[in-house]
Amino acid sequence: MVHHGTNGKRTLFERESELAAVDDALSELCALSRDGSEPPGRPRGALIAFAGRAGLGKTSLLAETRHRAAAKGCTVALARGSDQEQRVAFHVARQLVQPLLASVPDAELREVLGSWYAIVGPALGLCAPRDGAPPDPQGLRDGLDWMLTHLAVQRAPLVVVIDDAHWADAESLSWLSAFAPRAESLPLLLVVAYRPEELPSHAAEFKSLPGRAGQRPIGLEPLSAGAVARLVRDVLGTRADDAFCRECWAVTAGNPFEAVELTAKVHDRGLTPDESAAHLLRDLAAAVKGSGLVARMERLGATTVRFAWACAVLGTSISPSLAAAVAGIGERETADCADRLRRARVLTGVHTLEFVHPLIATAVYRAIPGGVRVALHGQAAWAVINAGLGASAAARHLLEVHPDGDTWVVQQLRAAARETVRAGAPDAARRYLARALREPPPWQDRAVVLYELGCASLLTEPATTVNHLRAALEEPITDPALRHGIVYRLSQVLAHSDRLGEASDTLAREIRVTTEPRVRVRMQAEQFMWDAFRADEADSPARSRRLARLADRLPGRDLTERYIIGLRAWDATLRAEPATTAVRHAERALVGGLGWAEEDRGFEVPVLVALTFLYADRPGRAEELFAAGIADFESRGWRGAHLSFAYTLLAYIRFRRGRLAEAEDFVRAGLRIAERVGPKTPAHWYAVGILIEILLARGRVAEATRTAQEYGFGAPFPAAVVFPDAQAVHGELLLARGLTKDAAAELAAAGRRLDPRGMRNPAWCPWQLHLALAEADDAPDRALATAYDAVRRARRFATASAVGQALRITAEVASGSVRVKLLEESVSHLERSPAGYELARALVCLGAELRRAGRPKDAADPLYRGLEAAVQCGADGLVEQARDELAVAGLRPRLLHSTETDQLTSRERAAAALTVRGEPAGRIAEELHTDEPTVVRLLSAVYRKVGTDHSGLAAALEPRHPR
């Protein structure tokens, strides 16, 4: 506990080890900031957590930490949790950030924060919430991470102090507990204090965060008898005898707060601190806390007590004028009451009041009679609104007011919920709206309150959202636009909860009763979209025909019409109509714009339009659209499922282009985001399925198997259609593992599910081709027929990549001389396609087949080209296969002319030498101390500089002779 001695020096008793940890961290932090170098063997920043029961000196320890940090020239940011304000979203975050940015002009702040300004600004109280969809919680958390990181770098060395973290609001505490491990990699010292028994479950990370004491907080213990004696004599002088000091320790149980307060009472009463007065200490100690404190305060007068109650209701950083308004007293009385409470060691401060200690604030608040407390909160809500502080500031008080059918209360809670949800705190908004519903609202407003409550629960509790929205539809609704909005949102949340059939049925019922033509078209568009993703749709061909008739006659005048046209493009892709037809509709859908982040629309249709271009062999166009979509998501702070889908499908585009290393990087980024969203969500299925496909293409079957096991990738498969089809990918994995019978069963089941729905495009789902491979040994005739049927479908879609892949796999299940013809045609098609990996496979297969046919000279060129293409793709397994084929054919890997190697950098030369020696990309990465994507880029540069048609000597590279 801190005591200010007569010399003004701060004294802390028995906290030497705690202060040593603080001093070490500060010295290291300041040394780093001065010379810019990182001390060897030490982390850059630090986290220190102090845990202890109430009154053990956490606040005093943090005050001393701030004092020492300021003395060393550190920037210090302070926030304190409050028992009364822990339901105010981002209260602690605002306390930390606002003082640091108070002197920064708004224009400069906008420039510095860039796109983060509109995302984190409302949460931190820096700007009003913007119109449009709010950021998702993860996007906001990323923005807050960026903000604190920026401040740590710009205001280094930065010391962030958080007192009473157990009372911090849930939004701030969840963010800070997730951010805390980053402190060690920044010029930042984060010091936190809390009561461990009161720390909420959503902040349990604080109990195990790495810090100065290892994997635990620094626990504070009560003071010893000797320390209490020193504290007493520091105030009362050496005349305090041993018996008196011993009794002080006994009645306070070594609690520093109580010991300091008790000593102050002895001093104020002028008692002689010896054994004769020791018997009085127990009564004096009782007056320090609880009922004793209340009784002592009551002696100051009824007006003063009411003012203290008003301060306790308001919480922290109390405005005297606001407290006076709540207490209902005048300006002169306010000053007198504040003076009396300061002298009584209840309050401190002048222009802004604070309770001397959180224990005092809690005792005063709990002493307020129940009915009076409710009335004071109601008065506080009015005072806050009248002071211009807004509905959000008043809402926490309205939560404490008894329901009374007050329309004003409902209005304020709804306004607070709108502000809060747009600031990125939907849970707080949900609390406000639930309370508004209990008021209750007027009957004509009940539906809209239920709708707003459902929207606030959307991201965190989708099942609850469904219940609220269905309840809203049961209410009398006089506004048709409100009813339509409820139906749209209900169908969206049902669909995103993997309840696509219910989403479609909800829209179908409303379509039957809707009289407005444009509304009916919009609902039809929504229904078409969800039906397109349904794995259990009863009559997909009929839906496709209805969609085609409607889309063909729509000119694309508005977003709804463009959505329908975009869905028509995707349906044409799935059904293997000519790719030119699909592309024509996709281009029509884009005329006039097709936003990815429309507030009341999903992003599914823009994604489907982009994928239409991908499957039509126009991956560049697809990447352009995905890049625009990602920019839209990030600018709005949507960094959850939306961004996971975008990164994952961008990885899929790279995969189909044969850029496997880049694809793996993107899909792992998407998977990391999907894991934050939650397991078994559509985003998770997409990411895991695509990762498995990429790993198989890279020849890493064991890793693909481990990935499937780790993420539970298998039956039961999702009710929604995902890309690539999860069941087909699982069958492909079984095939790669050599489990041909299991693979055939899985792939045949996928076909029975997809074929009746008209999903027959092998470019989208090549289940037939993999089934043919799985059945080739046991049922070769059936396998060949299945493969030829896939070729027929691919020719109907008429893209070079689809036809080329189908011909390659058909060659693998065919026999005789036809195999060479099929592979030659496959290569011819794939050379005109963007499918680099498929071309590499076809070239290696053609070379191998020519070798087996006794034509080794003819085999050389496709094998060399296939090897080079496989290296550029990052397909390590295919690289090994090509090298083995070259070795069996008596051919050495293609070498480079020494004159050509002159233009290579040293790292490119080293990479080329290792690949000529037959080393895989992983081994080359180890040798060069880099990663596989870098190796691929190095080798791509080699082939670009020297060409790919050379087979001369390479003395400079010293190649190894083939096996």
TrEMBL record:
Residues 13-191 form the Orc1-like AAA ATPase domain. The keyword Nucleotide-binding applies. GO terms for molecular function: ATP binding. Keywords: ATP-binding, Nucleotide-binding. The keyword Transcription regulation does not apply. PANTHER family: TESTICULAR SOLUBLE ADENYLYL CYCLASE (PTHR16305), TRANSCRIPTIONAL ACTIVATOR DOMAIN (PTHR16305:SF35). This is ATP-binding protein. The lineage of its organism: Bacteria, Bacillati, Actinomycetota, Actinomycetes, Kitasatosporales.
